[in-house]
Amino acid sequence: MTIHIGAAQNDIAPTVLMPGDPYRAKWAAETFLQDARCINEVRGMLGFTGTWNGHPVTIQGSGMGMPSLSIYANELIKDYNAQTLIRIGSCGGMQNKVGIRDVILAMTASTLSTPSRGIFKELNFAPCADFDLLVAAHKAATDKGVPTHVGGIYSSDVFYDERPDLNEQMVRHGILGVEMEAAELYNLAARHGRRALAVLTVSDHLLTHEALPAEDRERSFGDMVEIALQAAFV
Ligand code: HPA
Predict the structure, then answer these.
(1) Would you name the residues annotated as active-site residues?
(2) Contact 204, 100 (CB under 8 A)
(3) pLDDT of amino acid 85
(4) In this structure, are residues 48 and 33 in contact, taking their beta carbons and an 8 Å threshold?
(5) Is the confidence at residue 192, as pLDDT, over 90?
(6) pTM higher than 0.90, yes or no?
(7) How far is CA 233 from the centre of its chain?
(8) What distance in angstroms lies between residue 53's CA and the mean position of ligand 1's atoms?
(9) How many helices (H) and strands (E) would you count in the chain?
């Protein structure tokens, strides 16, 4: 049990999927895991542990934004010894070649700042995904026939952005999409020698202003969960 996670020591699996939304954690656990049981309800940030093809898996909500994700990922890594952490979430598309519902596998995550900024000071650390997870997720996604892009994303601190010039620079530099959590997950994985990846579905688009209709969100989210699970256990 930690400050933010009520699970007993053995209740968290070495492999943890982290959606931002705790209700997506519940849906994913009930839909894809066998024998899923709720292992955390502290602050409503639901977590579930079960098995997938015989492998133990935890699906724990991270909340929105890097400060929230950082709390859960720190405790999962340092207190529960999680080894593989895969963010599953949505992002905003930032290139014309990226379509709504496409999957983005975040090879790197640029940021203005993260909760790790205090360590790096003037250094611009380059947070990156675990290569084996990235390759395995790419294979799983392409085998499924899901249009998939691999490259850099932008982990922003704000959803309602008052600095459109930053997005313009990200677009100009080939960044595929924007979300709010991956860079800190990659920082923590690097610091503690763990494996991390962000598998993202494009839910809205900054250039075309399209958005994924509510009825399509569940199916797209399901694809991401399956890609993450297959990548974790190749
Ligand atoms: N901005 C930031 N985070 C997001 C977005 C966005 O447009 N879409 C989904 N997550």
Answers:
(1) 204
(2) yes
(3) 98
(4) yes
(5) yes
(6) yes
(7) 17
(8) 32
(9) 7, 9
